């Protein structure tokens, strides 16, 4: 019997209370699902900026002369292409090519990497890598050393510029620099999970509340608001970004999830490669697609997808899209049903509600 | 905040009596818990229900809440305005955000409902 664990507080716990955050328990952490409201926060991120506390994410340092080789073996993306200051999106795969977790790989130095993983999987991921360690590699769980803020939206750069001396325009997408933000040392990366421009700031836990306050101070007049987990989910869904436990899990491969760009078969051998090669050769039987509800109702995770009166799949994620003003979702469906315009139905409680397949992403930011 | 002349149910609904008709909506507490309402699913006029039957649902971005009829009776009117503007439930839950009007068959069932003081205590007790 596992002992009951009390949810952990992030370094910004007091800040959330002060900002009127409505706290919930998420993946073992106390975090705000919203402040002023999901729709309002969502719209702020799309038109100005939102500030998220994502300190619950896990961070691991993988270092040493064998670090690159180990990561090449355990992940499908090509680590040899990462020079210091670069980041890529990747995953930990099983021998079956399915997901243990999706993650970001930051190259801090020639022999030093930072892995950023989902909070819900942090313990599992650490154990996975630890079981496969080899000589010349040092693995450390450094999650407790970081508070993590995500500043996302078209005005993110404008706002952050006021608190840092570095030229943010020089940090391109999926790159990072070490800088001082409001006088506190930070890793500043141009990454995010919203489909908007933005930055993620890796700070010491002691610095995080001060930087949070300063950002809201200078960003408030620009429309910056604190944003919670509710908006984080509606934003990433509109951008068609996968969420572990929904679009990806230990039954899905990157190819199933439309993430073939993460898989570099030519880089050499890695865990799961054989299965992915075979899958690529044989073709997929089902595909992850997006749908829009046509009738009234929201097709949520787990709801059945129907075609011709038969169950053909289940919704992986679904919600109301504040940007589109309609309910949207994703599901794995047989190839024959995946062309945009195909009519399907979603079983929303007692009703089979009409829906239609649409191309992804649902939302793309203006350039 | 909570009108003195309303009755309240444990499902966080309010009831206002007008002769043999009761008007039903959800309370401010319920709309705050739900968040922004995007769809309201209501029954049709003429349908009859027993007390505590599910008569519809209110859907927000993050959640769905079933709506139960506190009293047995017949639906006489549904708030059509909520179809185009479901957010009225959030903005004015005790007024313009009313959901249905029911011609109720048994005033004995009123005894199961709480008055405003009891409802306030119910909220404080954290249920």
Q: Would you write up a description of this structure?
A:
- The complex is a heterodimer of chains A (367) and B (127).
- With 367 residues, chain A is of the alpha+beta class.
- Chain A has 8 helices and 20 strands.
- The longest helix of chain A is centred in the middle third of the chain and has 12 residues, at 208-219.
- In chain A, 45% of the residues are buried.
- The mean pLDDT of chain A is 96.
- With 127 residues, chain B is an alpha+beta fold.
- Chain B is built from 4 helices and 9 strands.
- Chain B has helices at 28-34, 81-84, 88-91, 116-124; strands at 7-8, 13-18, 21-26, 37-41, 48-49, 54-60, 64-68, 73-78, 100-104.
- In chain B, the strands form 2 sheets. In chain B, strands 1-2-3-9-8-5 form a 6-stranded antiparallel beta sheet. A 3-stranded antiparallel beta sheet of chain B has the order 4-6-7.
- The chains are: A alpha+beta (367), B alpha+beta (127).
- At the A-B interface, loops of A face strand 4 and strand 6 of B.
Spatial extent as radius of gyration of chain B: 13 Å
Quickly give the CATH architecture of chain B: Beta Barrel
Average pLDDT reading of chain A: 96
- What oligomerization state is this entry in? heterodimer
Q: What share of the residues of chain B lie within helices?
A: 10-25%
- Approximately what portion of the residues of chain A adopt beta-strand conformation? 25-35%
CATH homologous superfamily annotation of the largest domain in chain A: Probable tRNA modification gtpase trme, domain 1
**Major sheet of chain A, described briefly?**
6 strands, mixed
Terminal-residue CA separation of chain A: 53 Å
The dominant shape of chain A is globular
Beta strands of chain A, count: 20
Helix fraction of chain A by DSSP (H/I, runs of at least 4) = 10-25%
Just give the CATH class of chain B.
Mainly Beta
Order of helices and strands of chain B: EEEHEEEEEHHEH
Q: Termini of chain B, distance in Å?
A: 19 Å
> Structural class, from helix and strand content of chain B?
alpha+beta
Nearest-integer average pLDDT of chain B: 92
Query: Of all protein chain pairs, which has the greatest interface, and how many residues does each chain bring to it?
Result: A-B, 16 and 11 residues
